[in-house]
Amino acid sequence: MISIQEDNRMNIMKRGLFILFEGADRVGKSTQVQSLTNHISNSRNLPTKSLRFPDRTTPIGQILNQYLQNATNMDDRALHLLFSSNRWEAKDSILELLNSGTNIVVDRYSYSGVAYTAAKGIDVDWCYSCEKGLPEPDIVFYLSMSTEDATKRGDYGGERYEKVEFQMKIKQIYEEKLKRPSWKVINANRTVEEVSNEINQIFDSELESLQKKPIGTLN
Ligand SMILES: Nc1ncnc2c1ncn2[C@@H]1O[C@H](COP(=O)(O)OP(=O)(O)OP(=O)(O)O)[C@@H](O)[C@H]1O
Ligand SMILES: Cc1cn([C@H]2C[C@H](O)[C@@H](COP(=O)(O)O)O2)c(=O)[nH]c1=O
What InterPro entries does the record point to (predicted)? Predict the structure, then answer.
């Protein structure tokens, strides 16, 4: 039988998981990132950190923030490459966290990058090409609900992309061009607790097997 000390030591040696939340605006990603981060830290007692993209704190992130707040304009492809660069500049710290055993719960990543640029009519393969080589998420939770219902949620309309027609295109690209069979599609049009209970259960059931897999790479 394994002693508690030995079990703790083995846990320390396990790598962290990369958990990603994706979906259109206002589907509840940030709320669920916070909830799962609390679950992993408090109920599972594992080191956990939440991250979000764009990371608006870096110099590149500040340029993106100005664009999102309609303070500047930019060529769509140049903008796309900046969103991607904002992920590449985080690559080493993501890998360090995972390799040191910290789980990361991430609010948007490469799939947001592709969905939002492709919704402007730019080729999906071109959009995805600059994501190849980045660390691959272990679980993607895709939060799904109708654009109409998401629009009714708080504070909609403030930033550049918060327009109903554009959001409908984004949803279509996620669901028709990006969604992989491995994605966990979550009905987001339920209470916060109903959604988080389902997500916590999925996380708990996949934790052990995913910890044994090597960290993947987007390809
Ligand atoms: N399950 C839910 N039911 C009702 N309201 C919710 C639910 N989840 C989140 N909300 C509310 O909806 C709003 C948007 O939530 P949140 O910021 O988590 O979404 P988001 O997907 O991260 O949005 P965005 O991508 O636009 O930043 C907030 O006011 C939040 O309190
Ligand atoms: C990562 C990423 C994001 N976007 C868009 C999507 C949203 O409209 C904003 C971010 O808003 P949030 O409230 O901070 O989630 O940026 C994008 O166009 N491309 C990307 O790669």
Answer: P-loop_NTPase, Thymidylate_kin-like_dom, Thymidylate_kin_CS, Thymidylate_kinase
